[in-house]
Design a protein that fits this description.
68 residues, mainly alpha, 3 helices, elongated
């Protein structure tokens, strides 16, 4: 289990104003944030791969999906 301490009264107040004092609400918001960050990172990697010519032709993708 990971524990995060916030040592910034302004940030702590902002979090409390947005999500209340319920720890579960804050935890869910943090989980959502981490998921969004991962998606943004994955999209960034995909764009770099496409720019480098490492993409798979769309016809190949659909053929492989259809085969499954």
């Amino acid at each position: 289990m990971l524990t995060i301490n916030i040592d910034n009264p302004e940030l702590e107040q902002s979090i409390e104003n947005l999500y209340g004092k319920e720890k579960q609400n804050v935890a869910q918001a943090f989980i959502d944030f981490i998921h969004h960050q991962k998606i943004k990172k994955d999209v960034g990697i995909s764009i770099k791969q496409l720019d480098a010519g490492e993409g798979i032709p769309i016809d190949d993708v659909f053929s492989k999906i259809s085969a499954k």
